[in-house]
Amino acid sequence: MKLFRSPVHAPAVSARIGLWLGIAFGLCFLTGLASHAAQHPPGWFVWPTRPVSLYRVTQGVHVLSGIAAIPLLLAKLWAVYPRLFERPTRLLADALERLSILVLVCAAFFELASGLFNVAQSYPWRFFFVETHYAAGWVAAGALVVHIAVKLPRIRAGWGERADAERRAFLRTTWLATGAAVLATAGVTVPVLRRISVLAWRSPGGPQGLPVNRTAAAAGVQVPEGWRLTVAWPGGSAAFTLAELAALDQRTARLPIACVEGWSATAEWTGVPVRDLLVAAGARTDRPVRVSSLERAGLYATSLLPPAHVADPLTLLALRVNGQTLSPDHGYPCRVIAPSRPGVLQTKWVTRLEVQP
Ligand SMILES: Nc1nc2c(c(=O)[nH]1)N[C@H]1C(S)=C(S)[C@@H](COP(=O)(O)O)O[C@H]1N2
Ligand SMILES: [Mo]
Hints:
InterPro entries: Di-haem_cyt_TM (IPR016174), Mopterin_OxRdtase_euk (IPR008335), OxRdtase_Mopterin-bd_dom (IPR000572), OxRdtase_Mopterin-bd_sf (IPR036374). Keywords: Membrane, Transmembrane, Transmembrane helix. This protein is 44% helix and 15% strand. The protein has eight helices and ten strands. Strand 7 and strand 8 form a beta hairpin. Helix 1 packs antiparallel against helix 4 and helix 1 runs parallel beside helix 5. The chain is elongated and about 75 Å long. The site of molybdenum atom has 6 residues, from loops.
């Protein structure tokens, strides 16, 4: 077939694209592990609270390297697909090799597609995104390592082969498409790119200049008459009205909200450092703190502040954003804003802090 004989289907092309695809997948995998560790820290692990934008950067890299991998993967498949139709010469070895490629391609497609649906906040499936996306990431990474090891001789040969004009044109198109995909979306997390990122899935258009993921109405939150913030610990508890919280020493800090979906935005938050609040209530400050919201059913109605975050003076129970009282959608009467913390753990509509035993 003529298509099969195009000079683009050559190791010279697939090795060059493969390098960049490998870098994109590698970054995506490592930052994915970081995100998982930040959101579900195993007992031995402490996610650092500084720099304050650490999670914003790792999650931005995660989502953008995933976006870059989409055109790279398509171009890579185009460069190599005729080989999948070659007649096998070594029956068992070729069958195993093709099986490993099948696993790799399926896992890679699954990761990129499920990630895209996630940033679009669309879940047209029955599985739980977080666990499945994480598990398939390990499958893709394992299959990729096997693939690179098996193909090493061919990769070497590819780099030794010159890219002629037609191959160079194909490579140029691939780099252009990859750059365009990243630029069209990077504005979700890189402010200077907001104007050119036509496909950015979140803009700072929400109330108080910040995007909103879940509105108060969607969460079914209504602040009851006589709302109080309860601080509880083994053996005691204390309650604060909003006026009492506002009368404590306030701290203002510029901190980002960095959603796991890749978008992020910085704002100026004002509130009571959680540590000071615990001291004012008479509770210990060296234990994890369970944060609960007025929301009843949501998956993110509660979160756990690890001791490192409790101790950090920039971990705020915020009452204000950008100089205004929090709007209902940003968590009125108060919300958690902590440095370098995944957005899903920046609990809104807080009603109870519980120092763990
Ligand atoms: N109670 C509660 N808090 C929540 C959520 C939620 O669904 N319920 N969503 C979280 C998510 S996923 C993000 S990214 C941030 C977004 O904060 P914002 O809506 O004020 O921008 O809030 C977090 N706090
Ligand atoms: Mo989020």
